[in-house]
Write a structure and sequence with these properties.
The complex is a heterodimer of chains A (about 120) and B (about 180).
Chain A lengths: L1 H4 L3 H21 L3 H27 L12 H31 L13
Chain B lengths: L6 H21 L3 H21 L3 H25 L3 H5 L7 H22 L15 H13 L7 H22 L4
Classes of the chains: A mainly alpha (about 120), B mainly alpha (about 180).
Chain lengths: ~120, ~180
Amino acid sequence: MDAMLHITTLHYLVLGAALFLLGVIGVLTRRNVVIVLMSIELILNAVNLNLVAFSRYWQGMPGHFGGPGALHGQVFAIFVITDAAAEAAVGLGILIAFFRNKETVNVDEVNLLKW
Amino acid sequence: MNPPVATPFFFYLLAATMIVGGILVITRKNAVHSALALITTLLAQAALYLMLYAPFVAGVQIILYAGGIMVLFLFVIMLISIERAAKERQFNKQWLVGGVAALALGGLFISVYLKTTQGKMLFPEGRMAYGESQNTQAIAALLFDRHAGQYMFAFEIASLLLLVAIIGAVVMAKKRI
């Protein structure tokens, strides 16, 4: 019970793992490309949560890498958010081009490059 | 700096919000409903960032993710017709294999987390952290400072990446170049 009530870094990691799994299930099973892209955003957010949680963990640690200035995880989270923005822009551009050609948003029908 | 009040309550509330939102994202038929659930998840995650003493990342999350990327998603959902997609089968033929693979990944996570925490306490939660007023300055020093800024080059690469993404998105979405 004490482990449940004292929120540690591990709690955040477990939450991140759960979100990551939800995103993986969405990517692997859904047919709608828009929802697949949203699942990828879920995965990136799970990684961000882990990064910020580990940043918090290192801020409480003594030593050379620790201390209150150990904000590297937060900086990396900002970079990941930048990447997510770029990925969303390019992915949605591809989606619009695909919809213009095929009039559908199903991943099953994205098979022009299939051997 | 004062420790936050009622941390377990808010953590479990926000975690439940995020999990329910994530489940809604991957199960709804209508893509607009999925987008709204994802926005809820992102806002709850921003609140979790505040609990982790990361106010700048929380602000970036709200402004960029919930305000920028999700609006882009909603625009594209409006551009393409979703009526047909909502009537069709929602899960592909490989859903069973995908679910089993995801479960295997979950088992891997569980085994790793059990192994790494075995025999010792859970990760200790230190009390040292910058307050809200210093966090943004410290991040800016890491990104931009002439002497202590380790991530200046990475920042420039990120701006180049955004430029390439803008050009790529315009080229993809244009009818004829």
